[in-house]
Amino acid sequence: MGNPLPSPVSVAWLHEHLGDENLVVIDATNHLPIPTDGPYVPESGAETYRPEHIPGALFADLLVAFADPDSPEDWTAPDHERFAAAAGTLGIGDGATVVVYDQHGGFWATRFWWHLRYEGFDQVTTLDGGLPAWKAAGYEVTDVVPEPNPRTFTGTRRPELFRSTEDVAASLDDENTVLVNVLDEPAYRGDVKNFARRGHIPGSINLPVSTLRDPETGAPRPIEELRREFEAAGLMDSGRKVVTYCGGGIAATGVAHALALAGRDDVAVYDGSMTAWAGNPDLPLVTGDSPR
Question: Does residue 108 sit in the same domain as residue 177?
């Protein structure tokens, strides 16, 4: 556990720095309509990026270029070489500073933030409020797709920030590992069936990613306030490993990001999350409010 990572940048900061030579702005949007009772169906954000994006921003396709083409689950992290090649093509690499946003002001940006850190790249932050905040401030959007300036990506992968299904299964009885389900309470309890089976992984606690925002304004809650809640949940204990999961490894990065801002920069993400876990009938699930 290290020092708190840099806070997200404001739209005013980004507007002022758009012309910086080594700044790379990335739109990492996907769309995932939340079903009332049924499977999630993801969509790339490429078609909505093209007509309206921050000037100079490039699109990172998390469903294709930055995903494992052989995985049965969407968004599965590819091998390091595939990721490095895709990142370098967008100009992400040695000497670059990256600001990631999405069209919802949500967790696609934190997914790419996490993925870059997992692959060993630290010069990355997110845009506070994403594209909605940019537009609300009255700043220009464009349909001009820029040409990237390719760079060499030389990061070294950090395996401690990633968990596979096998890793999570092996840690179920480990008292020093805290599994955090970031889905809403009905999904955690198993009241709805968004995946192959209902419920949550045994032993996991529930910390909905939605609680990171003020329910009235939608703005991110102060990190100091969240840190107190993280501490109360035992998530700031350096003697325990923290692993977040959700439906497909996206919203889980939102809580990992908040924990990093609070000073817990070693949180791992279960990449396959409930999609992979519930899809294997041999793996246990529990329902109700209790972790077990």
Answer: no
173 and 247 inside one domain: yes
Q: How far, in Å, CA of 24 to CA of 13, rounded?
A: 14
31 exposed, middle or buried (CB, 10 Å; 0-12, 13-18, 19+)?
middle
The one-digit pLDDT tens for each residue of the chain (292 residues) are 555 567 899 999 999 999 899 999 999 999 987 666 666 678 899 999 999 999 999 999 999 999 999 998 889 999 999 999 999 999 999 999 999 999 997 899 999 999 999 999 999 999 999 999 999 999 999 999 999 999 999 999 999 999 999 999 999 999 999 999 999 999 999 999 889 999 999 999 999 999 998 888 778 899 999 999 999 999 999 999 999 999 999 999 999 999 999 999 999 999 999 999 999 999 999 999 988 8
Which of 90, 122, 157 terminates a domain? The answer is 157
194 within a domain of the structure (yes/no): yes
Look up the CATH number of the domain holding residue 77: 3.40.250.10
Task: Name the β-bridge partners of 243.
Answer: 179, 268
Calpha distance 224→207 (Å, rounded): 17
Q: Are residues 213 and 135 in the same domain?
A: no
pTM above 0.90, yes or no: yes
